[in-house]
Each structure stands twice: as structure tokens, then as C-alpha cells.
Task: inverse folding
């Protein structure tokens, strides 16, 4: 039950962080057609998870912080449902090239960010 509460609290924090990341990205880039904020949140979440996966000691993985940060906070920060909806809307409005850019870009950049985070994290681990 404790872990469920940690995931719940982390998810709320992650969702608020995602909200501000999307707002900030949209203000910075002023996208008209492309959902750049969700892409930024998803790629950044992948980078952070890759990094902490490489750096977290085993005792940290067994403690309360792991479910709070990974499943909760990063799960709330990244968003598969919004990504899927944004991609569908691009297809539905005949913005097919942008839809494919969103789908493939998120997957390729997400995997790349997770790998980069892991590689950076390995530099901090003996």
C-alpha cells in the first residue's frame, strides 16, 4: 500500500511538471501544427529514466524513491495517451507527414534519449 501511495504522489508531481513543460515548450516554439511539448516531455522523461537506471544503486531501487520517481513521477511526466491522441488528430486533419514525424520521432528520439541517459549515467558509476 505504501508503494501505491508513493506512485500516486509521484504521478501527480510528474503530471504538473509535464503541464509546465508543455506550456513552456509551446511558448518558446509557438507551434501551430506540431505537438512539440509532448515530444519534449516524452524524450526528456526517457533521458532521465535512462540516466537513473544506470546510476541508481541497488539499495535505492529497493527503497521508496524508486516507485515514486520511476513509475510515479516519470510515468506522470511522460504521456502515451496524449502522444497517441496528438498523432491521431494529425492523421484526422490530413497532416499525415507531421503525424508520422510525431510517431517515429517520439520512438526514435525516446530510445535515443534513454540510451544517452544510460550512457551518461554509466560515467557516474564505478
Result:
Amino acid at each position: 500500500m505504501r508503494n501505491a501511495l508513493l506512485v500516486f504522489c509521484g504521478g501527480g508531481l510528474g503530471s504538473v511538471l509535464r503541464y509546465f513543460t508543455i506550456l513552456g515548450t509551446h511558448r518558446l516554439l509557438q507551434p501551430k501544427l506540431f505537438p512539440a511539448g509532448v515530444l519534449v516531455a516524452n524524450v526528456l522523461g526517457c533521458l532521465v529514466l535512462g540516466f537513473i537506471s544506470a546510476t541508481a544503486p541497488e539499495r535505492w531501487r529497493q527503497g521508496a524513491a524508486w516507485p515514486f520517481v520511476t513509475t510515479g513521477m516519470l510515468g506522470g511526466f511522460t504521456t502515451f495517451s496524449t502522444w497517441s491522441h496528438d498523432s491521431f488528430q494529425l492523421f484526422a486533419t490530413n497532416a499525415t507527414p507531421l503525424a508520422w514525424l510525431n510517431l517515429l520521432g517520439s520512438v526514435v528520439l525516446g530510445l535515443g534519449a534513454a540510451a544517452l541517459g544510460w550512457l551518461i549515467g554509466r560515467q557516474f558509476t564505478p
About this structure: The two ends are 34 Å apart (CA to CA).
